[in-house]
């Protein structure tokens, strides 16, 4: 399981880090529109590859589609995310924001009740009764938010605060992916002997210290110092990512693996979305307080 987690983590963390580099190159050499155009040939290539090389697999025991859970989760999360992202613009006490937040939370509450009672839920919430699964996913939720938050805030600091090019910004944040890849190889060797708890705690502690140092960056701080800190932040997160993903499925039965994977992926995506929302929200609050 450790080797599988090590392989699966690579595309998950490489994509957010490589994207700014390729995006910066396209923006500097061509136009910002090519950030969207480039997805067309990539999508076509992916479709061709999947058609010729992926084997078809169908589970005859698969249940029915949980339409109620799908609608409740989708609408509830959308309303909550809207309230968090637009709250600073419209005001936290405005009717639209309060209504979206309350409505979204109510829908998510109903979603939880429905998923617990139906026989074939979209997300099997009973899996949270597994302590190791629950704990590992909570770590993944918050660590994903922090990881994506750094990848959001760093380009803003570089391009808006320091006026560097999009390509330079991407090359400065890219070392975070290298740090993750390197540390996951080390963590894969240490996991069987040390276990997930100390690896996750040590990795997150180190990443937290490095992120605190990143907050001390000035307008004239060397970009090489920032690249080193970005690399170390990625290295710390890598220890946590591999350990959490391996621990998530360590005590899950083969029969429940598909449901556990769906639930773990959903929480990771929610964490990533929270990172992209809370990072600008924090920046805006700090800026408003500074202006006052």
Can you tell me about this structure?
- The protein is mainly alpha-helical and 292 residues long.
- It has helices at 2-29, 34-37, 39-53, 67-90, 95-117, 131-161, 166-173, 175-194, 196-214, 223-248, 257-291.
- The protein folds into 2 domains: 2-43 and 125-291, Up-down Bundle (Growth Hormone, Chain: A); 66-121.
- The protein is 80% helix and 0% strand.
- Helix 1 (2-29) packs antiparallel against helix 8 (175-194) and helix 8 (175-194) runs antiparallel to helix 9 (196-214).
- The radius of gyration is 21 Å and the shape is globular.
Tags for this model:
11 helices; Growth Hormone, Chain: A; 292 residues; 0% strand; single chain
User: Treating each run of at least 4 consecutive H or I residues as one helix, how many helices?
Assistant: 11
- The chain-level structural class is mainly alpha
| CATH topology category name of the largest domain | Growth Hormone, Chain: A
What name goes with the CATH superfamily of the largest domain? MFS general substrate transporter like domains
Q: Please tell me what the overall shape is.
A: globular
Query: How many structural domains does the protein architecture include?
Result: 2
User: What portion of residues is helical?
Assistant: over 70%
Total strands: the figure is: 0
Main sheet summary: none
Name of the CATH first level of the largest domain: Mainly Alpha
Beta-strand content bin? under 5%
Please give the CATH architecture of the largest domain: Up-down Bundle
Q: Over all CA atoms, what is the radius of gyration?
A: 21 Å
Low-confidence stretches: none
**Terminal Cα span:** 52 Å
The H/E string reads HHHHHHHHHHH
Whole-number mean pLDDT: 80
